[in-house]
Write a structure and sequence with these properties.
Layout lengths: L2 E2 L13 E2 L7 E2 L11 E2 L5 H6 L9 E2 L3 E8 L2 E9 L15 E6 L11 E9 L1 E8 L2 E9 L16 E5 L10 E8 L2 H6 L6 E3 L5 E2 L5 E6 L5 E6 L1
Parallel strand pairs: 1-3, 2-4, 4-5, 6-9, 10-13
Antiparallel strand pairs: 6-7, 8-9, 10-11, 12-13, 14-15, 14-16, 16-17
């Protein structure tokens, strides 16, 4: 090849790179290409010759290297970097993991290493998890929270509660669903006025008790009504 003529590659705006084989640069008109920003791959040791040659010096990125850099960027920061030989098969990096997040995938990765550095990007999407409130073994309310979000406790429901709280409610949402239970006392004055002879008292794990103890008590009245009482 002695020359590449005028307008030979005009309008070829989708070129990823240009590769030439001659060690002696063919004559190139300044308007042979319409896009000189694409990388130019030249034979080993010929970079300087092409940088000084008519037309070819218009290319902003000329390389005769054997290896090029493949960089993975995750969430805007460098994750891993490799030097890979030109035309070698690229094996995609395994997807990273991050608690409370789902990886969104890598951007396009070439099948083989081109004659220029390549940057591949990936990012994470934050996950949401379910917070379930239980009262008397029934679902009271379900709410979705993003991982790490501050949890705003559900207000106490209306009812005849002497005391009420949500047990083991985390301050922020962990990376899993959460179930919290209502701990409350209801009608405690009525219970304390009743004769202990008419009460059956149990611990939360089902052990029969002779009298109320500190903490949570399950009380069954003579009519079969079940009360949960907290003694402090």
């Amino acid at each position: 090849m002695e020359a590449i003529y005028q307008n030979a590659f005009q309008g070829c705006n989708q070129l990823e790179y240009v590769k030439v084989l001659p060690t002696n640069p063919p004559f190139l008109f300044d308007n042979s290409f319409s896009n000189y920003s694409v990388p130019l791959r030249v034979p080993k040791g010929c970079k300087g010759v092409y940088q000084a040659a008519q037309g070819w010096k218009n290319f902003a990125n000329i390389s005769d290297a054997d290896k090029f850099k493949l960089t993975y960027i995750v969430d805007g920061a460098e994750y891993k970097t490799y030097e890979i030989e030109y035309n070698a098969t690229i094996i995609a990096e395994e997807e990273p993991t991050k608690e409370g997040y789902t990886f969104s995938g890598w951007s396009e990765i070439p099948f083989t290493m081109p004659p220029y550095d390549v940057t591949v990007t990936g990012s994470f999407n934050i996950n949401s998890y379910k917070l379930t409130y239980i009262i008397d073994d029934k679902v009271y309310k379900e709410t979705m929270y993003e991982y790490g979000a501050t949890i705003i406790p559900e207000p106490q429901p209306e009812g005849d509660y002497q005391t009420f709280k949500w047990t083991d409610l985390p301050q922020t949402m962990p990376a899993h669903d959460v179930v919290v239970y209502a701990s409350y006392t209801s009608g405690i004055i009525e219970v304390l006025m009743a004769s202990q002879q008419n009460l059956r008292i149990y611990s939360p794990n089902g052990k029969k008790l002779n009298k109320l103890q500190k903490g949570i008590n399950i009380v069954i009245l003579n009519d079969g009504t079940i009360k949960k009482i907290v003694v402090r």
